[in-house]
Design goal:
261 residues; alpha+beta; Jelly Rolls; 2 domains; six-stranded antiparallel beta sheet; 6 helices; 18% strand; binds fe (ii) ion
Length: 261
């Protein structure tokens, strides 16, 4: 009798666990359909006015040359050079130094974003938007082949990343790998393997390099990134730009937005 009760309890616990997992999957699929459908129905346009938005919409990325002057970049790098060096020397695992920035650190950059109408492109593509974060992203020379160094999408639906290249052009630096046009495909994912695709060949992806001051804007819903091997160090300023509408904003995801004040 005792064993029978024990078995029933174990069985119930097992079933409840399965049920919770199933509900989580349904909830996740619902969210994925919702964000992709909303973008497709309300924000995706056939004709964009700005030629850079047109290119972004067609390919999933657009590269703009000479957006930020070198002296503006050098000033920011000078402020963080010691921190980057020290963190690089103490890096045990991984390949990446990430330094979150405040608006005051990058307000000069923002002036050039405004001047070059970068945010107009973001607005035309996403509608109202907000900046989720702004950081220095410094890749060391170390090889890396897991996590975000595998082809993946960022699982937030269509949103944007800005990379401002802060290093000089070097063909041995790790470029942005991007599968052209893949931001237009519907994507559903339950396990990590669904949004990390080791099977996409490097040769199939575009290699987007930058020179100091260039800016790359890309839709993170497209397949991007690839294995990092035999590369030299590279620094970019990275901004994550997300929609801000009734259905999607940083608050709804429990994240706080980059404070521009
Ligand atoms: Fe990513």
């Amino acid at each position: 009798m005792y064993f029978l009760v024990f078995d029933v309890l174990i069985m119930n616990k097992f079933l409840i666990h399965k049920l919770i997992t199933l509900l989580k999957i349904i909830n996740s699929i619902y969210y994925q359909i919702k964000i992709q459908l909303i973008f497709f129905l309300f924000y995706k346009k056939k004709n964009y006015i700005n030629i850079f938005t047109q290119e972004l919409s067609k390919n999933g990325y657009v590269k703009l040359k000479n957006i930020i002057p070198r002296d503006v970049i050098d000033k920011l790098l000078l402020n963080y050079r010691n921190q980057i060096l020290s963190e690089t020397n103490n890096l045990k695992n991984g390949y990446l130094i990430d330094i979150s920035l405040k608006y005051n650190d990058v307000k000069d950059f923002f002036q050039y974003f405004e001047k070059n109408k970068i945010f107009n492109v973001c607005k035309e593509y996403l509608g109202n938007f907000e900046i989720l974060n702004c950081k220095i992203n410094h890749q060391t020379e170390k090889d890396f082949d897991t996590s975000s160094m595998q082809p993946h999408h960022d699982t937030r639906g269509n949103d944007l990343k800005i990379y401002v290249w802060m290093s000089d052009y070097n063909e041995k630096s790790h470029p942005l790998y991007y599968l052209k046009g893949s931001h237009n495909n519907w994507k559903f994912y339950i396990t990590e393997n669904h949004h990390r695709r080791k099977d996409i060949l490097k040769e199939k992806m575009d290699k987007v390099y930058g020179d100091k001051g260039d800016l790359i804007l890309f839709d993170t819903h497209g397949w991007h990134s690839h294995i990092k091997k035999n590369t030299v160090e590279r620094t970019v300023l990275e901004l994550t730009i997300i929609p801000n509408n009734y259905f999607f904003c940083s608050e709804a995801t429990g994240q706080s937005s980059f404070n521009q004040i």
